[in-house]
Design a protein that fits this description.
This protein is of the alpha/beta class. About 35% of the residues lie in helices and about 15% in strands. It has helices at about 5-25, 55-65, 85-95, 105-125, 140-160, 180-190, 240-250, 270-275, 340-380, 410-415, 445-465; strands at about 135, 175, 195-200, 220-225, 260, 285-290, 305-310, 320-325, 325-330, 380-385, 395-400, 425, 435-440. The strands form 3 sheets. Strands 1-7-6-5-4-2-3 form a 7-stranded mixed β-sheet, sandwiched between helices. A 4-stranded antiparallel β-sheet has the order 10-11-13-12. A two-stranded antiparallel sheet has the order 8-9. Strand 2 (about 175), helix 6 and strand 3 form a beta-alpha-beta unit. The longest helix is centred in the last third of the chain and has 38 residues, at about 340-380.
């Protein structure tokens, strides 16, 4: 997705910063809650405070400051998990201090990470005979970077053997749909790779199988298939892509193309909900897959996973070795020091829920999303683009004949006033003139909340319909200064 940051957007951000700075200014924060009056206590801003403050007062000041933020459960913009059981949050807290990279010092934690890789690889039908390899990451953005790097380094070796001039003629390129998440744009920019985007259109809201191979040439390092496009939640047809790639590779034995599946959202849902769907290592040309443990892996933000189908898929240059139980353990993550708590949390969720537990949680979550989709459709003014067919995402736009004098950004603003964060945003590239609205349902958002949200939506639509206040000179085409983006990973 191209950047949507604008001057108006930056001005809006600066205004927010000014407000926060004024709050952090000279005002003193008194704390009679603790039956004591703490004079001269204020929140430090640009300079550290001179004296120490008691832990209770420090925590309460920060707690009150953060309390003004939105309720995370009502944030239907984010994919990131907003609830974990008290038992696992306590367990994770007990392991905050452990550095996940110190495998020799924390061998049991390293073992839990390896178990997670094996369990997730099994869900994705990894073949142990091919010696699959994987790692935890900070999130699926890092996992995508690693998947991209493996494609790049592998292509370099193949290009050199095939006699391709990779220094002066052309840059290597990556093929992906225009519904990509921003981490792929970062990857291409950081490593000087051309991003070839296959445009979406209203007839092809996922990777267009009729045109995708037109973007492939000798400089293509790989094709990314997305299992859950952030704009709409739709899946790319990985099985059809695999067939196209297989046919291409028959004519290009020296420079075969492989597929990386960005399963940030869908790769931890599909194995439980649609086990018959072929998208993973069952397909010959799928060589790497990533996912977010902190999305439908049901862990708090801070963990992702990437797995390669075998040793050939991960070039040796990307593997580093660290001391582990008197021997050596492979590590290939970009980040180094990080807490082991998220790995512990992921293993807990896998053990706690089991296959049937994950299936039940995801099924209930999708049921809630489909209820909301049905209710939104009944309103009669929206066209549903996605109705939680595969993951718990609902996406819609206003019908052309809706006959209303407001737009989706107005509805977003009205809902936000009442605590509900349901973003509106433009679609990518050649359909960016189409505005949509999307909600993401997670496990802590049950049917009672869904009913409240739908009722609030109906109420705010009624208010907008009855409004006579003109907020924009051109209501149909106007956009607010600040837009939702798809960078949350």
């Amino acid at each position: 997705m191209k950047k949507t940051t604008s001057k108006t957007n930056r001005k809006s951000t600066n205004r927010i910063s000014d407000i926060l700075n004024s709050m952090n200014g000279e005002g003193k924060h008194l704390s009679p809650i603790f039956e004591t009056e703490a004079d001269d206590v204020k929140m430090p801003n640009k300079k550290i405070n001179e004296n120490s403050i008691s832990p209770q007062i420090t925590a309460e000041i920060i707690r009150e400051y953060l309390r003004t933020e939105g309720n995370a459960t009502q944030n239907l913009a984010t994919f990131c998990q907003t609830y974990m059981e008290p038992a696992v949050t306590e367990l994770m807290a007990e392991n905050f201090e452990k550095n996940a990279i110190d495998k020799d010092e924390y061998p049991m934690t390293a073992d839990l990470e390896n178990r997670c890789v094996d369990i997730i690889g099994n869900l994705w039908h990894a073949n142990t005979k091919e010696k699959p390899i994987g790692t935890s990451t900070v999130g699926s953005s890092e996992a995508c970077m690693l998947g991209g790097l493996a494609m790049l380094f592998r292509w370099r070796h193949l290009a050199d053997k095939a006699g391709v001039d990779r220094y002066t003629k052309k840059k290597p390129n990556l093929v992906i749909s225009s519904g990509y998440q921003v981490c792929w744009e970062k990857f291409c920019r950081y490593w000087d790779i051309e991003m070839k985007t296959v445009p979406l259109d209203m007839d092809h809201l996922s990777l267009n199988m009729d045109t995708v191979m037109n973007y492939v040439d000798d400089y293509t390092i790989g094709i990314v298939a997305i299992l859950g496009i952030t704009y709409t939640g739709k899946y790319d047809d990985v099985k059809s892509l695999d067939k196209l790639v297989e046919q291409y590779n028959k004519n290009k034995p020296q420079l075969p193309i492989r597929i990386h599946v960005d399963g940030a959202s869908g790769a931890m849902v599909t194995p439980f909900i649609e086990p018959e769907l072929e998208w993973d290592f069952r397909l010959k040309n799928v060589w790497s897959i990533n996912t977010s443990g902190h999305k439908y892996g049901l862990v708090y933000p801070g963990v992702g996973w990437v797995i390669w189908r075998g040793e050939e898929a991960l070039p040796e240059e990307l593997i580093f070795w660290v001391s582990y139980l008197g021997g050596e353990e492979a590590t290939m993550a970009i980040n180094f020091s990080r807490s082991a708590s998220q790995i512990v949390g992921q293993y807990y969720m896998l053990m706690r829920n089991g296959f049937k537990g994950y299936k039940e949680i995801h099924k209930r979550t999708i049921d809630v999303a489909r209820y909301m989709a049905d209710e939104i459709k009944k309103m009669g003014i929206f066209e549903l683009l996605e109705e939680a067919n595969q993951i718990p995402i609902v996406c819609w736009r206003l019908k052309e004949d809706a006959g209303v004098d407001w737009n989706l950004y107005d509805l977003e603003d009205r809902l936000r006033m009442h605590g509900w964060m349901i973003p509106a945003y433009p679609m990518p590239e050649n359909i960016k003139d189409i505005d949509v609205q999307r909600l993401v349902i997670r496990q802590d958002f049950g049917m009672p909340l869904a009913i409240l949200c739908i009722n609030e939506m109906k109420k705010q639509i009624e208010i907008l319909n009855g409004s006579r206040v003109v907020l924009h000179s051109d209501k149909k085409n106007s956009k607010p200064g600040k837009r939702f983006d798809h960078s949350g990973r």
